[in-house]
Sequence to fold (969 residues):
Amino acid sequence: MRTILRNCVWLTAAVAAWAQPPVAPTNEPTESNRGDNVSNYNVLQSFELGYRWNTNGGDDGMYRSTVNYTNGIRLLSSSLNVQSREGHGGLFDQLQLNTQGLGNDPYQSAILRIEKNRLYRYDFTWRSDAYYNPGLTDSFGEHFMDTVRHLQDQDLTLFPQSNIRFFLGYSRDTQSGPALSTIQLFDGRGDEFPLFQNVNRQQNEYRLGGEVRVLGFRLNVLHGWEDFKDDTQRSLTVPEPGNNPNDLSQLNSFQGIEPYHGTSPYWRVGLFREGKKYWAMNGRFSYVAGARGFILNEASSGVGTFGANTFRQVLTFGNADRPTATGNLTFSLFPTSNITFTNQTSVYNIRMLGNSYFEQYTNGSATLPVYNFNYLGILTIANSSDVQIRLRRWFTVHGGFTYDDRRIHSFEATQQNSPPGTPVGVTQTNLLHSGTLGFRIKPVKPLTITLDGDLGRTNHPIFPISENNYTALRARVEYKLKSFRATAFARSDYNTNSASLDEYASKSRQYGVDATWTGTDWFSIDAGYSRMHLNTLGGINYFVATLGEVTTDQSYYVSNIHTGTLMARFTVRKRADVSVGYSHVQDVGDGRATAQGSGLYTAQPAFQAAQTFPLRFLSPQARISFRITQKIRWNAGYQYYGYREDFLTTQNYRAHTGYSSVSWSF
Amino acid sequence: MRALWGFIALCVLAPVPCLADDYVGSAVCRTCHADLYTPFYRNPHFKSIASGKEAPENTGCESCHGPGKAHVEAGGGADTIPRAFSRLAPTQVLDTCLRCHSQTLSRANIRRSEHTQEEVVCTNCHSIHKSTTPKFLLAKKQSELCYTCHANVRAQFSMPFKHRVNEGFMQCTDCHNPHGSNAPTWRMADRPHNTEQAQANEEPCLKCHIDKRGPFVFEHPSVRIDGCETCHNPHGSVNAKLLKRPVIFTMCLECHTGIGKFGPLGGIPQPSSTHNLADPRYQNCTTCHVRIHGSNSDIYFFR
Fold:
């Protein structure tokens, strides 16, 4: 029995290391124990407490953007499980609490479930994410964020095992912290100025619903209210000369407030039934009445493009509505155990409308208010049919057809209309026909081969980069025998159009192999490699001061990403577990040695430099977990991160991170 | 007449339903399988035993494995277990679990889901007796389960910029429903599978990125019509902010050609002649067009 249990623990720990997660918390658990019996309950606890450290060189901002672990004491993970032994506890029968990263890790979470059999089930999830992004490659690095996002979901189900159930729920999502943004002032040829932002966003959602079983059908009704508010403020702390060194613009003072509040009450109705073994149906219908009200009050003073002192105030207010109705209805037939036929119809109708009253005062003179009324409506009706037939025990074929009809209508006023500001309505219909065909072959028990493909044709795609004539092919081979598993996959997605100003061609290919072996209780290994190739080409149209309008260039982008992961785990004398891993991501681009290409597709140096962006991101790690007693382990780990861009060096970094901790279960 | 004979034959040859006497009760199973039964009170399935009110075919071990009388009389052996999961065909596994677990809206599409069609059924991801996670009884940590088959996704989450799935902040099921979902309606071609829609069948991105949801007076149509993936790679990217391109202006220019097929100007507007694209100022589109996901105050997303 103990051998089985130990093997399970080893296998679990070994496979849990596959994806090269951060080196801590420790994967190796203390040996399972039976916990302590207290009254009518069994209590099982474990926690891992340790110290995490890091040192890094190079661009600290990029390190924080991609990794972000810092120094300090952490409750790396913890678990509490209180279970009634007979299933007849007092206030609850089960209590589970799991936490991760508490104590200032950038990624923290706590998950709680309390349940009383047949009476209630309460689920609570809390998460915190410290998001830092210097955004150096965007907007001159002037779009920076250092915010913290907290998310929580609470759900209470009453009578969870009965035919009549009730649901109560609450979710909250907040984002707050300092950020940097920009604003363009004072006229169309003006300048851009960085601004400080105090981000303050909050969403609250309340849910109330129920489910009842009638005539074999389950009817699920949910009514919810989602409230959102954004009270982010923007201000200038010191006078700014702006990004353009060639003009006289300067921003001396700026204050901007734009409270943006709204609510989205919604109804969702679900209806579903399993018709014994021969059919199934389900439907989901929803209606959301989204509405937002806003006001923007912005005052700025400074120097305009030509050196004149300028004061400007902008006042905008109005509202935006977005009623949305959706419906999904699915029927499945299973005439025999070897045939599945499914038909699904979806309807999606969204209308976005609103008004924005805009008034601008520049140096005391008011401009005329502008009503830019905008409307965008999307109605999509889709129907798809799929059939799967198991012809032999070793051979299955499936196919399907999808038809989509999307109608998009917009009503916009632009200054280019005649007369300026006159709203113009435009409607476009967009049809998609696509088919799928695939096989699954299992010639011998350990081997599975799957092949399938999609072929799609759309007319009137809305955007040049929208998929138009596309094919997607996928193949996968898996060999699984006892503790060995190996897979290989290939996938291609081609958007096969000519590359012009209104069409775009892209070729994406992915290949990969990975294998796992967990054959002994003292050694296991997992390795994987994949390559992702992307090649896109589209027409572009732009202006250059010396050339005027350029219409013959093409935007070309090549990415060749190789990723490899390796994780091996050893057990030494049943006392110590050692795991070593390595993760390597390398985009080799199109093979060029410098940012400037050969002039392919464009003569503009900046466009050539944007054609490919080779970089390398690697991360070796090692961890040791030493069993002191059956219930206590000492753990230590080290992980290195190295990030290097081939053409820019400002964002490169290298970081050494590690931790030491004690795991204790009791 | 043929139909009548067929009906009679069906009645005669139909499998005989199990009799109540064939059920021995979980306490009998415990005699030999103490290693499985002793910690079973921690298992959510223990409810069926604790209740004491369920019919024998819905109680404890036999609710999943079938009546145990023959197994007991034979003194053990996998051949005598009516439903030994290691020997069941995938559809039989699904049928067995769905006897009870078909009652949740989130699993309403399970029989037509891509996973079921690929014969990835309950026991491929869930381990009833040797689960590593008490909640949902997963056989492994969730992301590891998914990576087992979706190796290309694992590669995407290894990128320098990614959603924090490996770090444990997020899970695959924040955006996907492995039990099947309704077909998405936010794109018009090769669509993602098993994607769990947000409110009003929107993209799941909007569950967390609440400030991008709007509604706005001036929507960026690409966001609303073809979705976030027009500009972003949701799993991971070598480019900051999960963008599809390392620099922004090429990405914007690929749509803003002035030639498109939609809009009041007969196409997607191209940058005006004041935008000298040889000047680095104009290569950072979002420096001026800061509210690129949508604005209430400016049709050009300036504020």
In short: Chain B has a mean pLDDT of 85. Residues 105 and 261 of chain B are 40 Å apart (CA to CA).
